[in-house]
Design a protein that fits this description.
Number of helices: 8
Structural class: alpha/beta
CATH superfamily of the largest domain: Conserved hypothetical protein from pyrococcus furiosus pfu- 392566-001, ParB domain
Strand order of the largest sheet: 1-5-3-4
Order of helices and strands: EEHHEEHEHEHHHH
Strand content: 5-15%
Shape: globular
CATH architecture of the largest domain: Alpha-Beta Complex
Helix content: 25-40%
Largest sheet: 4 strands, mixed
CATH topology of the largest domain: Conserved hypothetical protein from pyrococcus furiosus pfu- 392566-001, ParB domain
CATH class of the largest domain: Alpha Beta
Number of strands: 6
Number of domains: 2
Radius of gyration: 18 Å
Distance between the termini: 62 Å
């Protein structure tokens, strides 16, 4: 249905949403849960009313969420059952192979594991609660909040930063001292080698002759 001229919105169950990524940053999920718990009941209702989860309808009329996985998982863990879904496209008539080809072309899927390696589409979790933890995704989120790079509309932009940090920040440091890892990652985020990434906030160095 259309509400007040806005995109088509429907009520959907969080437990029935299908992820289009394999991992989340558990620290990010924990942060969103703390933010939710800090809200009063009226503020929570208003937030849910204004926050739409974009979905694509796939084979068997399943709803595939293409953004806000962290918030969705946080809400589910806080006992929220339903949310507003914004239907981006109906691809339910496609066969699975065609469907995933269309999803990849539209940059609506990110089938990469916590090791940064690509997986087959059938390896994607079937429910939000099956999403695995990627500490480097948590690192990317913290670096962005600290001003290391700007928020960008590029799909899965923070996963691109996570991949960059995965190559340059030792896992041992990330596990042992997260704050120090963040400081290291902020410096790396401003480096010239990172200027290809979305939201890069460094200074381009020029050479004058």
């Amino acid at each position: 249905m259309t509400i007040g001229g806005r995109p088509d919105l429907v009520v959907g169950k969080l437990s029935a949403l299908h992820p289009t990524q394999m991992t989340v940053g558990r620290r990010e999920v924990a942060l969103k849960r703390r933010e939710w718990n800090a809200l009063k009941d009226k503020e929570r209702k208003q937030l849910l009313k204004q926050h739409w989860f974009p979905v694509v309808i796939g084979p068997r009329h399943r709803h595939y969420i293409v953004d806000h996985h962290h918030f969705g998982l946080a809400l589910q863990e806080e006992g929220v059952k339903t949310v507003w879904l914004m239907e981006l496209k109906d691809l339910s008539w496609l066969k699975p192979r065609q469907f995933w080809g269309a999803m990849e072309f539209s940059q609506w899927v990110h089938p990469y594991g916590a090791d940064g390696k690509r997986r087959d589409f059938d390896a994607l979790p079937s429910r939000l609660q099956e999403l695995l933890d990627d500490p480097y995704r948590s690192l990317a989120g913290e670096v962005r909040r600290a001003g290391g790079f700007a928020k960008d509309i590029t799909p899965y932009s923070e996963f691109l930063w996570a991949a960059y940090f995965r190559q340059n920040v030792p896992r041992a440091l990330l596990n042992k001292d997260f704050k120090r890892a963040v400081r290291t990652a902020i410096e790396l985020a401003h480096d010239q080698d990172a200027r290809y990434l979305p939201g890069w906030a460094g200074i381009i160095k020029t050479t004058y002759r």
